[in-house]
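Worked example

This section walks through a single chain of length 804. The input is the sequence exactly as stored; nothing has been trimmed or padded.
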Amino acid sequence: MSTASPLTATPRPGTAGPGTAGAGHAPAGSQPLKRRIAFASYVDENYLPGFLTLLRSLALTNPTLCEDFLVLHDDLKPESIARIRALHPRVRLRAVRTEHYADFVKGDQTNYLVRKAYFILDVFTVRDYDTIITLDTDMVVLDRIDDLLRMRDGLGAVAQFFHGEDKLNSGLLVIQKEFLTDEFCARVDEIGLAGSYELDKHDQGILNALLAGDFVRVDARYNYVKRRLAGNKPVPEDVAVLHYTGRHKPWQGGETGYAPAEEAWHRYDLDDAALRAEFFALPGRKHPELVRHFGRRAHRAGSGLDIAVQLAEALMELGDYREAAEVLGCHRIPARDARAHALHGNALMACARYEEARTHLLLATAHPPTAPRAHARLAQLAWVLHDDATAASHALSGLSADPTDRMCGILHRRTAPVSGGGRPADAPPAGLNGASDQGGDRAGRLAHVAFYMDGQGNAGDKVLPEAVRRCFSDDTGPGAWQSEHVHRFVDDAALERINRQRGLVIGGGGLFIPDTSPNGNSAWQWNVTDEAMRRIEVPIAVFAVGYNTFEGQGYARERFTESLRTLVERAAFFGLRNHGSVERVRDLLPRELADTVVHQPCPTTVARQLIPGWRDPAERDDTVLLNIAYDRAGLRFGHDYGHVLAELAAAIRRIGEHTEVRYASHAVTDDTFVTDLRREHGISLPVLPMYDWSTERILAEYARTKLVIGARGHAGMVPFGAGTPILSLISHPKLGYFLRDIDRPEWGVSVHERHLAELLTERALGLLDRHEATVADVHDRQLLLWKITQENMGRIRPLLGDPA
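Given that input, the structure is written out below as tokens.
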């Protein structure tokens, strides 16, 4: 399979089209979106067989792709629509403007060529996407087409084989957002209605008259016309899209002299059962939405365990843990099938069906390939249920099977007792990062539910719990606080510990996220049932929690909403760390509860105000620190990671001409970016492994640099809290939310910005040139957040019975 670029020539001067707006030009303070991509075809009843085969071929040759598919139509029957929907999970029906070109198609309603010629041009009326790839219904996809989705500029098309390079073949178009405008659409309509083009070319004539040869040349392999294969020539191996041009179509009996081409089409003329069988037999990764779509149908038809495992894996990836457990529960899994047992155990654990999960995970430990991970999950399960001795035992067993297993290592350090008994060896201090079980009464301490980070954990989440506590007291240790890890199940003993304190603080951090440590009790990070929440007797303050879902990521909505409502009902104070989270959560609540949700900034953003004796540095290092979040890369970057990497490489070189660029790694996975940068672009950056550092060292490093360019929320909030200018690389809505809160959207650039290097460099150098003024602006913006925090604390302290 070829991996060549789809471009065979650069666009001529001026071919970028009308305007330069792209996906990245949305205001930085608004919720960012990945670049929105869709396929589109005009479909009628006559060409429905061709379109169905096109969809089958796309699924079988590009099983990792699953974008929206726009079906432009004007006469499809309900049963035809059902057949289309059976072949793709993201079909979007769109009626064409039949009245617009009525005079041109009148009396010619059965001529698909004429109808398609005008109605496919309706794609230019679409405003919901940044890139649209049109495919004719007489095409079949034979190879990977990922490169088309990575195109970012101009209007791409294959030049006509028989009429020269100056004319495009409209069978396949790659249309960028700057062409999906009212202005361009009006020009298309003007030429189309005037008829001042080659009448026998229809839509090609309209576009050729409009573009006059100014289009981006795409390699012919992406629109390889059938007529090139006359005389029974074989289909070249590198053809990605074969286009059955001409009057004779394969589903109508075909045409003599094109036998290999006809065979290529009939290869994908399958019934639904055969399609599913071939799809699930494909090796390698498949898009989870496609697996879910075809797998559910196969499951209802009585498919075997192999397809059930693939379906369950996809459902787990999409956060549908309950359905994954149900799918596997319909099968008797042989004892020797360790993969299926491990998967079933993980699904059951995510549903909080812990005893059933343990049974399946124990079966998975009997087989060497799955034993380390199964032991890691068993250790985690035991730890969640407060059984540290069993957790330590499973972690040690996992390390015996694979000494490099990271999760087993973490859980062993977290739970293994020191010689002679006592608290676990190498565990964080009980007062902050552990789970201290010592006593206490309501006169003194507060219980604190938070995500307490292990060694080599996320740097921002290390800083966060202490910053929360400093809002309440200068004492952040066990004398003032009872630690409760958010991921551990709230059992009777935990409730007793909480109820012995004078209040409960929950937060901060992005705890409203479904997949960090999934549980069926709440569907967010705190592993608590509604019944347990109602048994909490002390006042509750939800403090600086964030709604952290990525675009397209969802919750077990009913369970999450019920848990959220119970928490809001019980809380004496409910503060979320940005207005974006406030808005999202309010939308899930009835009016009487929604009004109680307020803004409480993340305490990391006011660190200078919280730490006693804080002094701003007299001088700063001549450095810029860069951070790229690499976890959940698919959700952050979509198809644009290569583009982001190249653009950041260019920006690093240009910024590096003025000041040294260093890399601030918040998590071990963030180091992947440095490796990719060196391998792909020959740039090596000094790495600061902040995941190994203390809170004090992290804050000190951020305080003495001149600028931080960060893609993590806390790679912006922590340096901002230390008084340092920031530029956010927005790959998650929360970064834009924060910039909106401080009224500085220009301090953010979407990672999907088409001209990312240019814009990032311009803004970074501008902030460096105005460094002193920008630092003063950071301090001013911080005071606004500090005022809100002080006002909220004035309300919270009496509610929690603060003796001060």
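What to look for: The first helix runs from residue 48 to 61.
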